Amino acid sequence: MQPDDLSKWTHSHDFAGEFHAAEKNTRRVLWLTAAMMVIEIGGGLKLRSMALFADGWHMGTHVAAFAIAAGAYWLARRHAGDERYTFGTGKIGVLGGYTSAIVLGLVALYMFGESVLRLFHPQPIAFTEAIPIACLGLTVNIVSAVLLSGGHHHHGGAHDHHHQHGHDDLNLRSAYLHVIADAFTSVLAIVALSCGKLLGWTWLDPVCGIAGSMVIAQWSLSLIASTRTILLDCEPESCDLRAEIRKAFDNYKDTRICDLHIWQVGVNRFSAIISIVTGQPEPPEVYKQLLAEHEELQHVTIEVNSTTA
Question: pTM of the full predicted structure?
Fold first, then answer.
């Protein structure tokens, strides 16, 4: 007879987590950055400052990145209950972070090319007018960083202090890195413009652009590496969950694991398929209790094979 109530054996596949504060603050940063982008690009063109102009375009690409981050949060929330997403929508935010990392890399390439061009073909810069705009840009970056850090809270409870296998919210991390990159280029712009005005070092403006592009490129590569690991269902190098699962089963009677698959479905949330061989088979629920302390394991499927069959 088919059971009428399956609630005992079913559960939610929403592993995306709660990121309402992060989503709201990302939208705020999006509008702040968009306004500052217009000011800096216009000011850079009018005042002929490559550092200011590059910072403005840098902010422009970050507007696109913040739109991607906000869109990822919205999509993850909208499709949280959609059964077509077999393991939930947790990876939508990771995909948003990966896309933003690509944008960040393109920004670095653009900044490098434009700065090299200005280094060999310098133009007069209106230092006095450009410096206040760069300072305003830095202020916006600081406010944005505070907003984004406020939307980032710890997930997983006290347990994760002992079993921290996953990553932080990579969608939020990507947005935060864009803000920090903006702040970094704003500082470089202020330094370059100030030295140009006080010391006549006009060459420092494009040199700072080159230095900034290299640092930003490094951040981009780091974020790509972090998100790529999850998108390709590859366990992070720092993850010791596989060893802990094997230890739990190896210490239980004569049970041995013959096949094990682990992949990340959200922030500090994992799924696992475990195939075991034993001479004393028991119900799957018994084996799942061996992993009860691993709260990061949100979805576990266990296949029991008997050596006496």
Answer: 0.64
